[in-house]
Amino acid sequence: MRILLTGGCGFIGSAVVRHLIRHTDHSVVNVDCMTYAASEETVAEAASSGRYEHVRANIVNGVEMSRLFETYRPDAVMHLAAESHVDRSIDGPDVFVQTNVVGTYSLLEAARKYWNGLDADGQKAFRFHHISTDEVFGHLEPNDPPFTETTPYDPRSPYSASKASSDHLVRAWYHTYGLPTFVTNTTNNYGVWHFPEKLIPLVTINAIEGKELPVYGKGENIRDWLFVEDHAEALVLAVERGEPGETYAIGARQPRTNLQVVRAICGILDELLPDPAGPRERLIRYVTDRPGHDFRYEIDPSHAEQALDWKAKHDFETGIRKTVQWYLDNRAWWESIRARRYTGQRLGTNA
Question: Which residues are catalytic?
Answer without folding.
Answer: 134-135, 159
